[in-house]
Amino acid sequence: MRSSDRSRAAILKAARKRFAADGYGRATMRAIAADACIDPAMIIRYFGSKERLFVAAAQHDLALPDPRTIPRDRVGATLVDAFLSRWERDETIQVLLRASCTNPVAVEHMRSLFATQLVPVAVALLGDTPEAARRAALASSQILGLALCRFVLAFQPVVDMSREEIIAWIGPAVQHHLLGTS
After folding, report:
1. Is there a contact between 106 and 113 (Cβ–Cβ < 8 Å)?
2. Domain-by-domain residue ranges, the chain?
């Protein structure tokens, strides 16, 4: 790995941690640079601005399963399980969700993330119709609401519910939003 690649990777790693700990508003480029053990000018060199650094740090592949390989009656449960797995392993989506509550750049990034990764799931299930986009948006409301309550706001008893309980409660709602069935 080249030195520039290592520096860029160190900056992104430090930015993810700092945005997670401090939020977008309180995270400073100086603190991120200190965490990455680099000069703050390097952040400007590689990313240009705090907003562009945030967008780069918040890049996230939801790694959703191919809906054509899921039994139709298990789509909702399988997707909720996939989201839970992703959130429990990687806090990037949590950082993005926190920031999108107050930052327009994060809001647009979140919209793009779901438009490019969840809408295609609905399209694969329903065909490329306006209803597919609406259904994906409604499923997103359930999924993002779950993430907000469980991982960001830490609402009880949602935090203490088992993975199986969450899937049993939220899976049918996502199933209904995507396919009109439960």
Report:
1. no
2. 3-57, 67-179
